[in-house]
Amino acid sequence: MGVFTPLKRFLAWLDVVSGWYPADMSMEERNLVRKIDAMVLGYCCLAFFTKYLDISALNNAYVSGMQQDLGLEGNQLNYVNAVYQVGYLLFQIPSNILITRLPSQYYLPTAEIMWGLFTLGTAFVKSYNQLLALRFFVGFSATACYVGCLHIVNCWYKKSELGRRNAIYFSAMPLGTMIAGYIQGGLVGVTSGGLQAWQWLFIVCAIITIPVAVIGMVFFPDVPEKTTSRWFTEKEKLMAFERLQADGFERSKGLSRELVGRVLKSWQFYTFVVMGNLFWLAPYAAAGTPPFLLWLQGLTDSSGALKYSETAINNIGTATSVVSIPAALITAIYSDWRQNRWEMMLFAGLLMLIGNVLLLVWNVSFGGLFAAFMLLGIANGPGNLVVVWAAETFAHDLEARAITLATINATNCMLYLVIPLGAWQTQDAPRYFAGYVSSVCMSAVQLVLIPIAIIYQRRDEKKFRDLATMAGIEPITFGSEASDEIEREIKKHGGELVVTDSVEISNSIAAAYPVEHESEYLHQHAKEFEMFEKA
Length: 535
Hints:
- There is one protein chain.
- By secondary structure, the protein is mainly alpha-helical.
- It is 70% helix and 0% strand.
- The chain contains 22 helices and no strands.
- The longest helix is centred in the first third of the chain and has 44 residues, at 27-70.
- The N and C termini lie far apart (72 Å).
């Protein structure tokens, strides 16, 4: 028996249990998806991990000596985090339009090198103002990462594959928060080279970040329809494109004046922008932010002495991130199996409401408060399902999807800029009464929005099934725009839709919505049909 045989057997068993590669997937397609997992998902996870490693380093550094060394006081920690959000916000939507036009295999890693260098510079700041400047540029250069990588990941996978892959991608965020805490905990007391432990944290983070960017430049393949990667054969590139079309994903429409109209007329844009922000903001207290760490820092024992050391605070402070990773994976596997995202989102929403109510009440035992933070950590796990749901309903429009995801993230940055300055002020720690009031309200509202999204989605699915029945074709679930376009064509031709076998004329409907039909010809990637008025 070979050395790696037990590992191979374990991975094979894990594949069967998780359904990572469906049993009916051909070996050829399976090998392709393995490459995509390694080069697309692999790099995006590493990039997102380093982003949150660098972001979380600030909060860990603050409770490990930075506050005293730089003379930070009052609400200045919140102002530093706010300046990061300002830099992050300014380039958010423009960046995600550019990523559909520029070679992402160079664009994203270049941005990562920049924020790695600015993170390195943070280790050498001497004043509050210098810290503000560096964090602004960290935020500005990190703009491309989250939604940019998210957009690329969602461009490579079929709908049945999205939940698990997005969960893995999302798990890189709490993993980065965790590792930052462990690194800082391990560096407590280190003063090598005349630098304090918190300064070494930023140096180590930069040392991890920059090589990841180099990996991206070498292996990252861009999106299927534009990839020139030498790591994929021409047959694999064609298969990657065709399997997405067969699953209902449309090719890029390009940038045009109609894009804004398509976005603003869609129910997905408004519903998911609001729902996504509420879903991400409601568990704020346990999302790698200061509240949990500052609560641990302020705990005392019966003698009045601090209960936890700096090392313990940094290590225990990772607990909310630890529980969110398995929560993300389990809920993603369940949602893929059930072929819906709303059940797990509803479950997470209820956990958020319970956890935030306990923290709002506050006068409960230590165990009760700790459990409340853990509930928020678990509820933070399925947060990626908002993105998966939005991506699936926007399968017909690559650019509209990119704009919607970027808008969710941009508005989230705006709220993360404003809400902490008002509701989560550092001097209110650890009680944060206003913060928990806002979180309880957001938890309740997002529970109401989930059924609204379900109603809209089911309406579109029924509409398309009815139209497909009129057309005499196999119904496939598309977004509302697909239904609207087919409906316009039917009305334009007097209410009759006729499918023919003998026409090889490419039209917008055929190119956008390929369907299987008894036809004797094959047109490059899909069979075609023509609409005309019946005599």
